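Throughout our pipeline, every protein is held as a single compact record rather than as scattered files. Nothing more is needed to write down the fold, since each code stands for a local backbone conformation. The record that follows is passed on verbatim for readers who wish to inspect the format.
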Amino acid sequence: MSLIENINKLFDHRIRLGMMSILMVNEQVDFKMLKQLLGVTDGNLASHVKALEKANYIVIQKQFIGKKPNTQYRATKTGREAFKKHIEALEKLIQP
């Protein structure tokens, strides 16, 4: 087995890595909070959201709170498992 076999290319980008890190410790997070925590623009966040959603790593729930739209993100079971494997692979790489 290769040392980098479980390194997941989808988590190569710092924004996607950050998003999944946030979603691993929070059941769900809204767009505004993700944007603030990651320090990114709306468009930048939206493009990375699409990549993770396409891979079935996150689910998106849109709703209205009062008259304001609210978008929530949650990591899927598939996403959680893929992220855990990715982190474990990184840890193996840096172990002496």
